[in-house]
Request: fold
Amino acid sequence: MGMTIAEKILAKKSGQAKVGPGDLVTVEVDTVVLIDNSFNPNRWREILKIHDPGRIVVVFDHRVPASTQDSATAHRTGRRFVEKFGIKRFHDVGYDQGISHQLVADCGYALPGTVLVCSDSHTCSAGVFNCIARGVGEPDVIYSAIKGETWFRVGETVRYELEGRLSPAVTTKDAFLQIAGTHGDHATQNIEFGGPGVASLSIAARKTLTTMGAELSAEFATFEADAVMLDWIRARNPQPMEAVVPDRDAKYAAVRKVDLTALEPLVAFPDTVIENSKPVAAAAGTRIDQAFIGSCANGTLDDLELAARVLAGRRVAAGTRLLITPGSQQVFREATRRGIVSTLVEAGAVVTPSTCGACGGGHLGILGPDETCITASTRNFKGRMGDPSARIYMASPATVAASAIRGTITDPREFLQ
Amino acid sequence: MKFKARVWKFGDNINTDLILPIQAFYLPAAEQPKYVFSANRPGWVDQVKPGDILIGGKNFGMGSSRPAARSLKNLGIACLVAPSINGLFFRNCVNFAFPAIECPGVHDAFEEGEIAEVDFEASVVRNAARGVTLEGHRMPPKLMALVKAGGIYPLLEKEGLIAPKP
Ligand code: SF4
Reply:
């Protein structure tokens, strides 16, 4: 019996010919991403030795620019760490900064067939590059940085065969909402994406799917490689690489088709995305105080461009605020060059620096008691974006932008045909 | 590690943001436990006694990589038993040496307030009043050793790889 993509990478990186569901493996880690949270004075444990500084990436993203004394201290500690170990891949506040998972894509840090860890649950995002990437605990990240290895439990794999092509007002966020709504969580399982529909999707669109794997509690979410993806990496990273293809006789827990052509705009209702998605019409008319587009799932150039297409020549409704956070300063710059940012700002959107900010309810765009928000970000748990009494609906950037114009949850097909 | 105490029950898909809400996220570890379940079960932290046992539902601890397991441990919870524990949360249970057992059927074997007897290393959970004994998944030896060492930081500290706690 053959192996799935995740199983093949886990086998290779643990030095075994074969691994299967139920195994516990110790694997070599190729890339360790440390984020500003880890350097927080209440949490940081000073590292005395690093396995290989060339494998480390340091990113400030959760509270950027520093929003409190405490986060400023964390940033300072991070800078000293980078200096002490001579870490080259450092993304400080400024030109190179961004949300870690967006930067991994911008910079081509995740190579096919490799293992990447970071202490943020949406690290699975990097699986778009045919690698295995996982959010682990902060102590795990420190351990990996020091020892160059970590452990994983091998889970079974569910494969999604993407078919057809998205229609103009529908995005891969809707594809995700469809999967979460129909199949619920994928706890202990890996997700593998492939099929003829992949070719029509940009890297950004694919990345939304892998990033949202965290909301399904998946172990890993991984795409099959294709020329578009390999070209993306080659343009950004000169290192040699080898794509991993699943064996023909790989064993899957399930193989499910997703017909992109048949998808319609969906919305997840508050508190969870698990079996909680409905067509936008089911929530249409719900008044919203805040609309948010951003995060490591929906802060790409594609997402900003889509929002701009909906908002061009229109205005955000009175009584509603629209916040938009580019995934990285590179995305921000490119969106500025293309005139996307001015379209958004003319419409009344507040465009923020690249940060986790509103997505994590940490320091920016926080929701007040009883407020309602519709978000194109990653997570809609109770209390996620501020007060626990706030209600958070989740949808695509197109649906969020359309809703901001009306001030109520709105089907984006009204604006995009 | 053996425990015998009253149980508190929670449902399916309890998430990390309920255990360690953003309002407590950046506070010192010692102050975080006060906020556990403040959104879904306010006042609960004042009723819990050190040594109590938590019984969860399916996919306990879904969500973020934040050190939520540590808050349960610091609150004095002796042990978590749930039919399934989220993969990332489970890692943090190991990382912070918080005993956690995946044990199918456990949710139906107890009413809140009943007494559970747990043998962590053998992965056995007993409700003596009902005469029910359940066997959970055994923690792999490598991870059990980590828990017994007190978790990752004490281990790295002992090996001289991180500085002692300031
Ligand atoms: S944008 Fe949100 S989900 Fe993504 S890394 Fe930041 S806080 Fe986590």
